[in-house]
Structures are given as C-alpha cells and as structure tokens.
Structure to design on (46 residues):
C-alpha cells in the first residue's frame, strides 16, 4: 500500500484531503450539537 501511495502522489493527496475533510465535518457537527439542556457548544460548562 505504501508503495502505491509513493508512486502516485495524487492519490496520496486525495486520500489525505478526504480524511481531513471528514475530520473537519465531524468537528463542525460537534460544534453544532445541541444535546442535554440545549447547550450551544458541547464544552459550554467549562
């Protein structure tokens, strides 16, 4: 697998982009989470 990524830098870039986009979308989801007591942010109590 590593050899495939080293031979095709475009594929490596695409996979990293997808992973980072998924992380950012997950963080945006957590930020907009409205759970117990309707807190706007998950760490609102700190």
């Amino acid at each position: 697998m590593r050899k495939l990524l080293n031979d095709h830098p475009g594929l490596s870039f695409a996979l990293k982009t997808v992973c980072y986009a998924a992380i950012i979308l997950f963080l945006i989801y957590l930020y907009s989470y409205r759970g117990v007591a309707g807190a706007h942010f998950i760490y609102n109590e700190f």
